[in-house]
TrEMBL record:
<dbReference type="InterPro" id="IPR001437">
    <property type="entry name" value="Tscrpt_elong_fac_GreA/B_C"/>
</dbReference>
<keyword id="KW-0418">Kinase</keyword>
<dbReference type="GO" id="GO:0003677">
    <property type="term" value="F:DNA binding"/>
</dbReference>
<feature type="domain" description="Transcription elongation factor GreA/GreB C-terminal">
    <location>
        <begin position="82"/>
        <end position="147"/>
    </location>
</feature>
<dbReference type="GO" id="GO:0006354">
    <property type="term" value="P:DNA-templated transcription elongation"/>
</dbReference>
<keyword id="KW-0808">Transferase</keyword>
<dbReference type="Pfam" id="PF01272">
    <property type="entry name" value="GreA_GreB"/>
</dbReference>
<dbReference type="InterPro" id="IPR036953">
    <property type="entry name" value="GreA/GreB_C_sf"/>
</dbReference>
<dbReference type="GO" id="GO:0070063">
    <property type="term" value="F:RNA polymerase binding"/>
</dbReference>
<dbReference type="GO" id="GO:0016301">
    <property type="term" value="F:kinase activity"/>
</dbReference>
<dbReference type="InterPro" id="IPR023459">
    <property type="entry name" value="Tscrpt_elong_fac_GreA/B_fam"/>
</dbReference>
<dbReference type="GO" id="GO:0032784">
    <property type="term" value="P:regulation of DNA-templated transcription elongation"/>
</dbReference>
<protein>
    <submittedName>
        <fullName>Nucleoside diphosphate kinase</fullName>
    </submittedName>
</protein>
Length: 151
Protein backbone atom coordinates (compact mmCIF):
# COMPACT_ATOMS: atom_id res chain seq x y z
CA UNK A 1 0.00 0.00 0.00
CA UNK A 2 1.21 3.50 -0.84
CA UNK A 3 2.27 5.80 1.97
CA UNK A 4 -0.25 8.35 0.67
CA UNK A 5 -3.12 6.13 1.83
CA UNK A 6 -1.72 5.27 5.24
CA UNK A 7 -2.88 7.12 8.31
CA UNK A 8 -1.43 6.62 11.77
CA UNK A 9 -4.39 8.12 13.60
CA UNK A 10 -7.27 10.55 13.47
CA UNK A 11 -5.42 13.21 15.48
CA UNK A 12 -3.64 14.60 12.41
CA UNK A 13 -6.98 15.38 10.75
CA UNK A 14 -8.65 17.18 13.65
CA UNK A 15 -9.15 20.94 13.61
CA UNK A 16 -6.39 22.67 15.58
CA UNK A 17 -7.45 24.08 18.95
CA UNK A 18 -6.40 27.71 19.23
CA UNK A 19 -6.00 29.73 22.38
CA UNK A 20 -8.91 31.96 23.39
CA UNK A 21 -8.12 35.39 21.87
CA UNK A 22 -7.13 38.12 24.30
CA UNK A 23 -8.90 41.44 23.62
CA UNK A 24 -6.42 44.13 22.53
CA UNK A 25 -5.53 46.99 24.81
CA UNK A 26 -5.45 47.27 28.58
CA UNK A 27 -7.36 44.82 30.76
CA UNK A 28 -9.38 47.30 32.80
CA UNK A 29 -11.73 45.77 35.39
CA UNK A 30 -14.04 46.89 38.14
CA UNK A 31 -13.70 45.34 41.60
CA UNK A 32 -16.70 43.13 40.71
CA UNK A 33 -14.99 42.19 37.45
CA UNK A 34 -11.87 41.07 39.33
CA UNK A 35 -14.02 38.92 41.62
CA UNK A 36 -15.67 37.43 38.53
CA UNK A 37 -12.29 36.49 37.04
CA UNK A 38 -11.18 34.86 40.32
CA UNK A 39 -14.46 32.91 40.53
CA UNK A 40 -14.06 31.62 36.97
CA UNK A 41 -10.50 30.49 37.73
CA UNK A 42 -11.65 28.62 40.85
CA UNK A 43 -14.48 26.93 38.94
CA UNK A 44 -12.16 25.91 36.11
CA UNK A 45 -9.53 24.56 38.50
CA UNK A 46 -12.21 22.35 40.08
CA UNK A 47 -13.36 21.27 36.63
CA UNK A 48 -9.82 20.41 35.49
CA UNK A 49 -9.29 18.28 38.61
CA UNK A 50 -12.51 16.34 37.96
CA UNK A 51 -12.32 15.80 34.20
CA UNK A 52 -11.19 12.52 32.68
CA UNK A 53 -12.13 13.07 29.02
CA UNK A 54 -9.01 14.33 27.25
CA UNK A 55 -10.84 16.69 24.86
CA UNK A 56 -12.87 18.30 27.64
CA UNK A 57 -9.77 18.48 29.85
CA UNK A 58 -7.76 20.25 27.14
CA UNK A 59 -10.59 22.73 26.58
CA UNK A 60 -10.85 23.45 30.31
CA UNK A 61 -7.06 23.89 30.57
CA UNK A 62 -7.13 26.31 27.62
CA UNK A 63 -9.90 28.34 29.27
CA UNK A 64 -7.99 28.30 32.56
CA UNK A 65 -4.88 29.70 30.81
CA UNK A 66 -7.03 32.52 29.38
CA UNK A 67 -8.52 33.46 32.75
CA UNK A 68 -5.17 33.25 34.57
CA UNK A 69 -3.71 35.58 31.95
CA UNK A 70 -6.64 37.96 32.47
CA UNK A 71 -6.05 37.89 36.24
CA UNK A 72 -2.35 38.73 35.95
CA UNK A 73 -3.01 41.60 33.53
CA UNK A 74 -6.08 43.00 35.33
CA UNK A 75 -5.95 46.70 36.17
CA UNK A 76 -8.59 47.40 38.81
CA UNK A 77 -10.07 50.83 38.23
CA UNK A 78 -11.19 53.09 41.07
CA UNK A 79 -14.89 53.39 41.77
CA UNK A 80 -16.44 56.05 39.55
CA UNK A 81 -16.88 59.48 41.05
CA UNK A 82 -17.43 62.98 39.82
CA UNK A 83 -19.64 64.60 37.25
CA UNK A 84 -18.19 62.96 34.14
CA UNK A 85 -19.00 59.45 32.90
CA UNK A 86 -16.09 57.15 33.52
CA UNK A 87 -15.24 53.46 33.72
CA UNK A 88 -17.66 51.77 36.13
CA UNK A 89 -20.40 54.39 35.87
CA UNK A 90 -24.00 53.48 35.15
CA UNK A 91 -25.19 55.99 32.55
CA UNK A 92 -28.85 56.66 31.82
CA UNK A 93 -29.51 58.38 28.49
CA UNK A 94 -31.96 58.75 25.63
CA UNK A 95 -31.17 57.45 22.17
CA UNK A 96 -33.67 57.57 19.32
CA UNK A 97 -36.41 58.64 21.74
CA UNK A 98 -35.87 55.65 24.05
CA UNK A 99 -34.41 55.81 27.53
CA UNK A 100 -31.63 53.30 28.14
CA UNK A 101 -29.15 52.59 30.87
CA UNK A 102 -25.72 51.00 30.53
CA UNK A 103 -22.77 50.36 32.81
CA UNK A 104 -19.29 50.83 31.38
CA UNK A 105 -17.12 47.84 32.34
CA UNK A 106 -14.17 45.71 31.20
CA UNK A 107 -14.23 43.16 28.38
CA UNK A 108 -14.65 40.11 30.57
CA UNK A 109 -17.64 41.39 32.52
CA UNK A 110 -19.40 42.92 29.52
CA UNK A 111 -22.89 41.56 28.91
CA UNK A 112 -24.82 43.82 26.53
CA UNK A 113 -28.08 41.97 27.20
CA UNK A 114 -27.82 43.09 30.85
CA UNK A 115 -26.69 46.60 29.93
CA UNK A 116 -22.99 46.05 30.73
CA UNK A 117 -20.89 47.41 27.86
CA UNK A 118 -17.15 47.01 27.37
CA UNK A 119 -15.37 50.34 27.57
CA UNK A 120 -14.22 49.82 23.97
CA UNK A 121 -17.75 49.46 22.57
CA UNK A 122 -18.73 52.40 20.32
CA UNK A 123 -21.61 53.46 22.57
CA UNK A 124 -19.46 53.27 25.71
CA UNK A 125 -16.69 55.29 24.01
CA UNK A 126 -19.26 57.94 23.06
CA UNK A 127 -20.49 58.17 26.65
CA UNK A 128 -17.11 58.30 28.39
CA UNK A 129 -16.29 61.80 29.62
CA UNK A 130 -19.82 63.16 29.22
CA UNK A 131 -21.83 65.04 31.84
CA UNK A 132 -25.53 65.05 32.68
CA UNK A 133 -27.33 67.17 30.08
CA UNK A 134 -24.73 66.66 27.35
CA UNK A 135 -25.94 66.04 23.81
CA UNK A 136 -23.63 63.66 21.96
CA UNK A 137 -23.17 62.86 18.29
CA UNK A 138 -23.44 59.13 17.69
CA UNK A 139 -23.63 56.80 14.72
CA UNK A 140 -23.42 59.63 12.22
CA UNK A 141 -26.24 61.60 13.83
CA UNK A 142 -25.78 64.93 15.56
CA UNK A 143 -27.01 65.17 19.15
CA UNK A 144 -28.32 61.59 19.00
CA UNK A 145 -27.74 60.93 22.71
CA UNK A 146 -28.78 63.00 25.72
CA UNK A 147 -27.16 62.01 29.02
CA UNK A 148 -29.79 61.93 31.78
CA UNK A 149 -27.93 60.67 34.86
CA UNK A 150 -24.77 59.03 36.18
CA UNK A 151 -24.64 56.54 39.03
Amino acid sequence: MSVAFRRDGDEEHLEPKFEVPIPPGPNLVTAAGLALVKARIAALEEQVAALADETALNTAKRDLRYWKNRLTTAEVQPAPSGDRAMFGHRVRFTLSGKTREVRIVGHDEADPAKGDLAFTAPLARALLGTEVGDLIDFNGREEAIEVLSLA
